[in-house]
Amino acid sequence: MMAAAAVMPLLAYGAVSMYSLRTGAQATVVQGNLNVARQVSEQIDLYVTSSVKILKAVAADLQQTGLASWQQDRILKNYVLEFPEFKELTLLDENGNPEVSSRLGKPSATVPDSESARIDDVMISRFSVDNDLLPTAVLAIRLSDSQNEGWLVGRLNLEELWRMVDRIRVGEKGFASVITGEGQLLAHGDPNEKSRVARGDRMSDHPLMRLMNDHKADQTVSAEYADPRGPVLGVAARIPSLGWTVLVEQPQSEAFAIPFALQRQLEIAIALALLAMLAVGYLWGRSFINPILALTRGTRELAAGHLDQRVVVDSTGELGQLGDAFNNMADRLVELQENVRKTERQAVFGRVAVGLVHDLSHPIQNIGNSCKLIVKMFDDMDYRESFKRTVDREFEQVKRVLEDLRNLAKPKPLEKYPLDVNKALHGLAESMLASAESSGISLETEFVFGPLWIEGDLYALNRVHRNLLTNALQATLPRGRVIIRTMRTGEQAVIEIADTGSGIPAERLNTIFDDYYTTKKQGLGLGLALSKKLVEQLGGTISVTSQVAAGTTFTLQFPMTKARPSQLAAV
Fold this sequence. Notes:
The protein contains 13 helices and 19 strands. It is of the alpha+beta class. About 50% of the residues lie in helices and about 20% in strands.
């Protein structure tokens, strides 16, 4: 963010600078080409208007002078010799028949039609190409006096106009062209385009001509467009007196070469400056960020339990002080962890000791009392049988406690084989029905229809189910209910053991499966912890939901299997 805050204004300034430089340089190039087009239009206008003035001067010399025909002939020939702009000057009568001409042969100039252009009462015909493939046009002025009634016509030689246009160069590849008001191409400076003049091609569809026609009030226009040569910069200037248009076209690669080169140079300069600034900023930033990154890594390692992690911060400022504080905190955490371990070991040992005393004292007391009585009643066969049953029962209780401790510390491997959950739960419910009825509790079953096959260990599952049922019966008051329910959910076999007992507070639900944790006033708290380990060994899950004073529901889920016992498969 710091780098972006520093770089973005510079990038924005560089972009604006490059845009301003490019647009300004392009505007200068366009203006320069427009100036060339204006100068060409002024020269052409001067060339044509001078020819018109010459023709009017000849007409003035012939009118009301009373000259003989040979004198008129001499005047016409002298003007042709003096002004090479005219190839021919001819005096026509009212009917258009030649009377006097500077041409030795038959005159070729005739009066233009009425739709021809006019400049100061002088008619100008459309331009054409003569036998020498040179452009030409006819100028005509009417003579009206007492002696001469008719027309003075002159064939204008536009070869000089061609040479003028040929001399126009804009760069190496920029050329000028002249187009008449009717859209006829009159002259072109590009040697490859001169054949179009001879063919009399029309240029009305040229982009600049269309733009000029759309903006008739404008004397100059400019545009960027594409033609067979590629992208082109074109400008046009109108010749008001003639209605002609001068075009100047130049490839954009040449016209904007300098702006493009300046832009590239500026881009390179900005890129180099940016890279240098980023390099310096990176080196400085790393020296500032590295201590923070080291502290971050150390914090993560510390959070992961690696209390031997320490950080090295080569700084004497605030970051160095922060690093020292971090290392001191880590040292203190090691001490605190060791103290916690000692306290936890003492607490666990105390809980185990209290639980063992409670769980084993009653069986041992019963065995001790029975042993004292057997000494006195050794000959009593009935008591001896009662003594045997008592000792067996109490030793079985002792063995169960010790077995739970051993399995929790080192679970023994289970043997999985297909078994029907409904059948196993039905047998367990029958075995515990008498105990439930003696406590005034209703033990109910709701099994899904048909067998419910899973891969499991019958002994391990019975221990889990017996633990859950025993807890449910102990937590339920008389006239309460304990329900064993099975369901199919997709490819899962679901077992629920629900009771209407006292429930478990919400704050204790997350810890009831922990080792040595119990909500009862007696016992080691191994039943649910062992049940969870057995369920997970069998590939299942166990969860609990409870509401105080409403009851508790334990839910077990196991993947169903398509395998069947070998005896059943044989049948």
